[in-house]
Amino acid sequence: MKVTDHIKNAKGKTLFSFEVIPPVKGKSIQELYDNIDPLMEFDPPFIDVTTSREEYIYIEKGNLLERKMTRMRPGTIGICASISHKYNVDTVPHVLCGGFTKEETEYLLVDCHYLGIENVMALRGDAMKDEKYFVPAKGGHCYASELVRQIADLNQGHYLNQSIESHNVAEICIGVAGYPEKHLEAPSLQSDLKRLKEKIDAGAHYVVTQMFFDNEPFFKFVEAARALGITVPIIPGIKPIAVKRHLQLLPQVFRIDLPQNLIDAVDACKDNAAVRQVGIEWAIQQSKELKAAGVPVLHYYSMGKSDNIKAIAEGVF
Ligand code: FAD
Fold first, then answer.
1. What is the rounded CA–CA span in Å between residue 24 and residue 73?
2. What are the residues facing 235 on neighbouring strands?
3. Which of 37, 40, 78, 248, by CA, is between 20 and 30 Å from 160?
4. Atom of ligand 1 nearest to the CA of 179
5. Record's GO cellular component, any one (predicted)?
6. C-beta of residue 304 within 8 angstroms of C-beta of residue 21
């Protein structure tokens, strides 16, 4: 079922969902199941599965730089299919512009259609570690809005090769990313919101936000989006702080602000077990306020660990 239909059917009740990361190349999918199992009691109508591009690191070898692949996490579509099969739950593969030609994307979407996957998150992807700016694949898309348009076209039965006579309509429900504290490359929140509107106008059906730790910017973001004519569901993304290192890492990687009282509470912790508890408590309070405000779904970034998400869900649902 489509994410938007799950939201409609919930009739105002806030749903629980979460995102998982595929195992690194060569690891077993069982590891993933072990993390999903404890969360199924909260009845997620859908589970997101992220996609990663090939990433390389360069190692000096004599006078040469040797390119080595790192952090490859293949199998997003296969993992979606096996999660749906095992748990009887809808899955949402993340589909990236970066690293893929339009033709490869089309094949991937056709696979989704054949596998009964009815939703995708359409994303641009980040610049690679050795790139200053995002560089699209040759023959690929530059922005998520272009990818959304391709999926929307396919939903109308328009394949890239127009000579194919096609009436096989996919009807994929399309999610896109939103940034309550603006995307790191955007000159301003307002211009970023206009870009978000372009994604909706291109055919996106719902928005999932970047993580945030202060609900106020999220509420303002929703208000500004509505003022711009964005009427689709906006789903907040929540990530609990789990280790002290997150205080530096999260603002640096995701360009988000951490509230001073959260920083102080984490700083005062003697060890990471205490940090984890602070992170859980913070996410519970955040989630309760968002739920009271009537958000359609609370979507959690599990980052491969479900124990803290379970603790939060127990406090909220
Ligand atoms: P876009 O919407 O294309 O926007 C990118 C930037 O370009 C923004 O600054 C925007 O304002 C600007 N822009 C857009 N259109 C134009 C235009 N026409 N002209 C000029 N500027 C423009 N990354 C992964 O690699 N894998 C994942 O699985 C993944 N999952 C994610 C899930 C969520 C919920 C979120 C919020 C992010 C996720 N990301 C993932 C990260 C995402 O790929 C990055 O944040 C990326 O840098 C931007 O992606 P986007 O789809 O928002 O891009």
1. 5
2. 208
3. 78
4. 36
5. cytosol
6. yes
- pLDDT (tens digit, 9 = 90+) per residue, 210-265? 999 999 999 999 999 999 999 999 999 999 999 999 999 999 999 999 999 999 99
Pocket test for ligand 1, best of 143, 211, 253 (most atoms within 8 A of CB): 143
* Global confidence as pTM: 0.95
Tokens at residue 128, please? 């690679």
> 301 pairs with which residues across the strands?
19
CB-based contacts of 195, cutoff 8 Å, min separation 6: 143, 145, 183, 186
CB 26 within 8 A of CB 66: no
51 lines ligand 1 (CB under 6 A): yes
For residue 45, give the amino acid letter.
Answer: P
Fold for the domain defined by 3-316? TIM Barrel (3.20.20)
* Model pLDDT for residues 23-34, shown as the tens digit of each residue: 988 889 999 999
Judging by DSSP bridges, how do beta strands 64-70 and 55-61 pair with one another? antiparallel
> In terms of DSSP H, where are the helices of 159-269?
189-202, 215-227, 246-254, 260-267
- Per DSSP, 37 falls in state G
The best mutation among 135, 195, 228, 238 to test binding of ligand 1, ranked by most ligand atoms within 8 Å of the C-beta, falls on: 195
> What would the 3-class secondary structure string for 256-306 be?
CCCCHHHHHHHHCCCCHHHHHHHHHHHHHHHHHHHHHCCCCEEEEECCCCC
What is the identity of the amino acid at 249? L
Question: Does an H or E element contain 56, and which?
Answer: strand 55-61
Residue ranges per structural domain of the chain = 3-316
3 state SS of 133: coil
* Centre of ligand 1 from the C-alpha of residue 88, in Å: 30
Residue 239 beta carbon below 6 angstroms from any ligand 1 atom? no
What are the φ and ψ backbone dihedral angles of 164, each rounded to 5 degrees?
A: -75, 125
| Cα gap 283→290, rounded to integer Å | 10
Q: CA 206, CA 172: separation in Å to the nearest integer?
A: 12
Helices 260-267 and 246-254, interaxial angle, to 10°?
150
Give 157's DSSP letter.
T
